[in-house]
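Fill in residues.
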């Protein structure tokens, strides 16, 4: 699974970097921001990807795609929830 901007989509492993940096590749959307309790902006996602050593793919210089496992996504959202409850 991958989180792109505010959407969580399924990305087949065989996609190339060029494909991941293309906007219209017809991916299966699993969740969108309205169905998530909190979101992240591209900078939050980029900072997290760097800290986790995950690759980043930029689409149109404004969207970011970060391939991540389900466990990594759960950890990301858990950390976001903890941070939001502290503020």
């Amino acid at each position: 699974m991958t989180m792109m901007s505010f959407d969580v989509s399924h990305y087949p492993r065989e996609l190339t970097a060029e494909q991941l940096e293309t906007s219209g590749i017809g991916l299966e959307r699993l969740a969108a921001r309205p169905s998530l309790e909190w979101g992240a902006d591209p900078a939050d996602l980029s900072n997290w990807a760097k800290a986790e050593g995950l690759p980043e793919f930029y689409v149109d210089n404004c969207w970011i795609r970060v391939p991540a496992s389900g466990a990594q996504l759960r950890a990301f959202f858990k950390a976001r929830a903890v941070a939001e409850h502290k503020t």
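The helical segments are 17-20, 42-52, 70-86.
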